[in-house]
């Protein structure tokens, strides 16, 4: 992957840190919910992510927040279309959280 693509992925992840899980109050990146950022040749983005629980009633809200978080990058033409792909494999568990999220939520390492 080119340095430019890697840098763009890092900017996308930084923007996604502004998306807060409404139930836990921690951003989706530190919770470990974002599995992968896919970029095609036109810099269209697919965010591959999961949720803390299947049937999460806030799935639609979180997907909308992800798209909103990336809208600034779209406006300055750094990225194209944004698609959010919710996956259930691998299943999310507490071990995927960052140290910051574990401390904030009082989860033992």
UniProtKB/TrEMBL annotation:
UniProt xrefs under InterPro entries: Fe-S_Maturation_MIP18 (IPR052339), FSCA_dom_sf (IPR034904), MIP18-like (IPR002744)
Superkingdom of origin organism: Bacteria
Domain MIP18 family-like per the UniProt entry, residue ranges: 9-78
Record-linked Pfam families: FeS_assembly_P
Gene3D superfamilies attached to this UniProt entry: Fe-S cluster assembly (FSCA)
Stretches assigned to coiled coil: none
Protein name from the UniProt record: Metal-sulfur cluster biosynthetic enzyme
């Amino acid at each position: 992957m080119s340095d430019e693509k890697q840098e763009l992925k890092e900017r996308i992840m930084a923007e996604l840190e502004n998306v807060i899980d409404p139930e836990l109050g921690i951003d989706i990146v530190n919770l470990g919910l974002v599995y992968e950022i896919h970029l095609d040749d036109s810099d269209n983005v697919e965010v591959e992510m999961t949720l803390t629980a299947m049937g999460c009633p806030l799935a639609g809200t979180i997907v909308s927040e992800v798209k909103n978080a990336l809208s600034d990058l779209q406006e300055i033409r750094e990225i194209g279309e944004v698609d959010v792909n919710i996956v259930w494999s691998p299943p999310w568990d507490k071990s995927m959280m960052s140290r910051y999220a574990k401390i904030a939520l009082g989860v033992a390492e």
